[in-house]
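Before the break, one more example. Copy the sequence into your notebook; we will annotate it together after we see the structure.
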Amino acid sequence: MENSFVIFIILTFSITLSAAYFLIRYSKRLQKKIGFDYKQVVYQDIKEDGTLTRPLFARQYGLVGKPDFIIEENGHLIPVEYKPTSQEIYSSHIGQLMAYCFLVEEIYGLKPPYGKLQLKDHVEQIEYSESAREEVIRILQHIREDLEKENVLPNHQEKTRCLSCMRQEICGESKLD
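Here is what the structure looks like once it is written out:
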């Protein structure tokens, strides 16, 4: 029994160490691919030791998020989001990146002039303007209002999104019917 426990501990430690090693290698390859020096990174969602970083939390707005990286560039903190399979920018990518810009502004007190989207084969720089900030706040307010409602209609026509929706049992507008 004691031997089994020791073997279990050694095996668990080995697996954890291997996972950490591969996460660190992945993180460094990703940084190289995105094209910034490791010294520029002030935040990353996976730490050097393979553990996950705590998410950013803007308590006043109830917004939580984890950009892939925050880098320092020309005296600004810039969120970087990595979309390795996308060749084009989708509105959801921009919305996510603007939310990260908003979090950086709220948490660090420094407004980033832009965020970066690393797509499959190129990087796009997306401006973070006052109107983008206001849109993030408007969307957060809309979400809070929807959470108070008994029934919220889908804002899409996609069957695949209904498959993973936690409200599909009570939704009268499900695309699965």
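The first strand starts at residue 41 and ends at 44. The two ends are 54 Å apart (CA to CA). Try to locate both features in your own notes.
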